[in-house]
Amino acid sequence: MLPRALLAAAALALVSAAPPAAAQAAVEVKIEKNAFVPERIAVKPGAIVRWTNAERRTTHSILFPAEGLESERLLPGESWERRFDRPGVHPYTCGPHPEMKGVVVVAE
Questions:
Q1: Which of 3, 22, 40, 106 could form a disulfide linkage to 84, CB 3.0–4.6 angstroms apart?
Q2: H helix intervals, the chain
């Protein structure tokens, strides 16, 4: 029979050797033809949303006016991510193109 300290050390080693939890995949939103595609997404709390500028020549940003939060300008091919932890409705626009609109709905 193994001493308790040895059993505890073996258990700790097994826990430490376990692979890390898989990273959560981001929900993708493309920016193309001066629109957010899809325009409306629904996610669970803790979800990460990634916006990618798929335009050829135009820069865009993601602006949440009610929250006072705006991404940097995204050049073609660049992305920006945001994590949504609390339930709610988060409307957004493109900073330089306010006619572009989208919404993230966070619900359990």
A1: 106
A2: 4-17
DSSP string of 61-84, one letter each residue:
--EEGGGTEEPPPBPTT-EEEEEE
Task: Note the Cα 23 to chain centre separation in Å.
Answer: 11
- Residue bearing tokens 């050390």: 9
pLDDT tens column, 76-90: 999 999 999 999 999
**What is the token pair recorded at 86?**
């609390």
Beta bridge partners of 30: 37, 52
Q: What is the pLDDT of residue 22?
A: 42
Chain centre to alpha carbon of residue 12: 33
Report the C-alpha gap between 92 and 96 in whole angstroms: 12
Q: Which helix (H) or strand (E) holds 90?
A: strand 88-93
